[in-house]
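Here we describe the complex-level prediction in full. Unlike the single-chain runs in Section 2.1, the two entities below were treated as one system.
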Amino acid sequence: MKKDIEIARAIEKEKIVTIAKKMNLTPDDLELYGNYKAKITLEKHTESIEQGKMVLVTAINPTPAGEGKSTVSIGLADAMNASGYQTVVALREPSLGPTLGIKGGATGGGQAQIVPMEDINLHFTGDIHAISTANNALSALIDNHIYQGNELQIDPRRITWKRVVDLNDRALRHVVVGLGGPIQGVPREDGFDITVASEIMAILCLAKDLKDLKERISQIVIGYTYDKEPISVKDLKVEGVITALLKDAIKPNLVQTLEHTPAIVHGGPFANIAHGCNSIIATKIALQHADYVITEAGFGADLGAEKFLDIKVPQLEKAPDAIVIVATIRSLKMHGGVSLADLAKGENIPAIRDGFSNLAKHIDSLKAYHVPVIVSLNEFTTDTKSELEAVKEMCDKQAIPCVETSIWANGSKGGLELAKTVVDAIQTNTNDYTPLIPEGTSMQEKIALIAKNTYGATTIEYSAKALTQIKQYQELGWGELPICMAKTQYSLSDNPKLLGRPTDFAIHIREFVPKIGAGFIVALTGNVMTMPGLTKEPAALEIDIDENGNISGLF
Amino acid sequence: MKKDIEIARAIEKEKIVTIAKKMNLTPDDLELYGNYKAKITLEKHTESIEQGKMVLVTAINPTPAGEGKSTVSIGLADAMNASGYQTVVALREPSLGPTLGIKGGATGGGQAQIVPMEDINLHFTGDIHAISTANNALSALIDNHIYQGNELQIDPRRITWKRVVDLNDRALRHVVVGLGGPIQGVPREDGFDITVASEIMAILCLAKDLKDLKERISQIVIGYTYDKEPISVKDLKVEGVITALLKDAIKPNLVQTLEHTPAIVHGGPFANIAHGCNSIIATKIALQHADYVITEAGFGADLGAEKFLDIKVPQLEKAPDAIVIVATIRSLKMHGGVSLADLAKGENIPAIRDGFSNLAKHIDSLKAYHVPVIVSLNEFTTDTKSELEAVKEMCDKQAIPCVETSIWANGSKGGLELAKTVVDAIQTNTNDYTPLIPEGTSMQEKIALIAKNTYGATTIEYSAKALTQIKQYQELGWGELPICMAKTQYSLSDNPKLLGRPTDFAIHIREFVPKIGAGFIVALTGNVMTMPGLTKEPAALEIDIDENGNISGLF
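The structure predicted for the assembly as a whole is:
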């Protein structure tokens, strides 16, 4: 069996200027990064023109069996184009953390990939590095301010702004900086997040333009004074340099799929610890230059889709016209209690029926938004006909179309029926999108809506710290900001071990982190961490390069 | 008076493919980064073809008055081309540390700049970010190895591999990582260097090709076992992924000067804490595609030029055909005891005579290499005729040509006489380059040669730690590796306050750091630090960007 990277390398790519033409972008709209990557300039894209239709691809809670959400997003876009619908796919940029950690890449798989995959998976056009640098320049300027006399009276014990690195680096979660005596700085506790959790990543993904970017950066709260007053970037007067460091990162990147569909890949917040969607600027450009835009949000529908719908949509001012939920027989079985090793043991319809509860919950939650929902059942060669039929039947009972796809093996050909189903759903959609969270709800009401409606929790338990923060945030006028939940991706609950559809569980709100520039409050639940660690045998050990520059081990 | 960035923006750049043509590079040899930046592919540049002549530009010890070494390098290349000599300038890439710290940019000044200066000064083509990432991925893999059972028995107290960030961040010099309990890692002392001090930067600049890069990376020593045996990257088996992360960074970058001279800008180790030269690959490509190559080494001749001659030349297998030392009346006055504030007080020939001692020492040291030496006296409007004459006279006594240049104000026109003098010197050069350090000398002999001949020190004092390390390194077979001195740039001594030509001083060897992949041992002298700090009013505070993406405050 050919590896993804071998398939990707074997295909002749079209020049990126040719790809751009498919969405009516001229060479003047591009800044080339070699022949196959480009940034799209921000000029000309601010005016309001007619927008295309938008399809959000999401999934059940991820399992080690693999669901193939990016693969389906890419293959669906290819299938739409193959069916005569002008379509662009808009995705997030991979973080190096998981690329070197567990995943080995995030550019689809099999016959549905975006290319050049080595570049996209490694440094790409440098956006994430620019974000790391902007984030850490702010940290250096904060610590320097304190060292140089601390005019603003920043309390070193109350700095909430953390440093970042775009790697899975457990040892940096909790650190002490500024050690070594008076000429080395002021000692304080600090920690590193992974870059994709940085507020600057969130801001870049939510900003409308360069002006909005700078305005949001100026509003970032980095900590508190000794008098517990919040300190913003504008108090430090460094929003100019932080924004300047993002001058190129704010421009969306254009690449292509293996079937030469334009792919806009921009911004990459994780959906478990951040808001999980690609950038508003990229989505808007895609919508202005295509009849159909396929986009995805991170992890399962409880995380990425919820944040897409409740955080991104209000700012994008456009709701999806259809939502595709990706599931596989294998992953439904795991939600039904089968172990990864036992997946090979053949047909197991009872397990699928049990595991379907996870998919059913996501269907229910998404139906509440009044957007058409379609299940994409992503085939594996080991699936039996009865297994596939069982899932279709259960979807039928929920009045949801369930379409088999074989995109990984067959590319667009494996997604033609899904494309047709999606277009049909959009054309009959009555466009009565309804948000989950009404305006004017309190922090606790918002959390209750998400935890109960989306996760299916029975209760919400707040730590003493969280309760104090709620009071404090209300006094500071932050009480009505949207909530961005940070929760394990593996379960509907905040306990990664509870697969399927857990019932009778509480969501534990440990702590809040204000992201005032991004315009939301992060709620940390359970034991979720904003800096992943590496496994005993990380993907990094497999990655190699030969003397001609050919990379292996990315998949 | 126009700011550098205004001059740079006002000039119409040529397309980079047009620039490339001037050095017989076709579009196929390039990977474009927009219209005005490109990477040069590594294909076709490995075979030995006729090489051009090489001019090394260096300077006296830097003062706050400014010497203009990059400006002279760029302007000399422009003047060479204007005089009919096909010339390329090969420089280092700026680090964001000083750009946001004290310098605000490192792309020349006035009428002699490389462009696009905003891009080059900020993230450029991402090389330094790739190096930071490769460096820190190795750190994460080391800490993960220990956390996951520590099969190699790495002693956490004896890890010499530090993390890096390409910023001036004092608070990261000494840190404790791995805090927070058993699931967060193993606590240990650590520290961050600035990226340009990373061994990976040194390796990238010394590697011959991708294969050599990987081989050198595999030889990096990251620390010691509990039994005090060195641990290399190859023991961790991660040279593949570290090298893969550098797949683009190893390719030299092509930009242009304001007068459209090709400028290869690649690699950027500092000369005070690292080896201070641009990459061997870039220099070789330049030499293969130009009749003359102007290159520079960092800081004063005691640091950058010494390392260029003693570390880079043996690996490049080519010595410079001429050396230009840059000085200004203002900086000579400061070496003669005048304060920055008092520079405005007008003519002061006695101070210049005193300060000339600094220049004289560098002339002496460089003469010993048997390469023609030329002084470039870089004019300021405040210089008087008698002051300029005094310096010329003193150079005359040393039998060294001293040429006035007005490159900052006049571009190539201000460097035509320098160009002529350089070409004359090269044409009459007898090519009997003699290295300072004979083969087979011990660590202490090497240090003595550099400290006494280059710095003019009388004695060398070793700390107890350094003496122990010498013994240890001899046992490990590292005793004959070149020494890369880490020393303040401001003085010939290791005390930044001793300007001019200090006499009767000792060089204090505090500690060694083995850089086995780079192939040298760093000797830390005095109080030199491998992570700079920010000043009270860093350049970052001046940097801004408007809503159209125009950057200000880089100069």
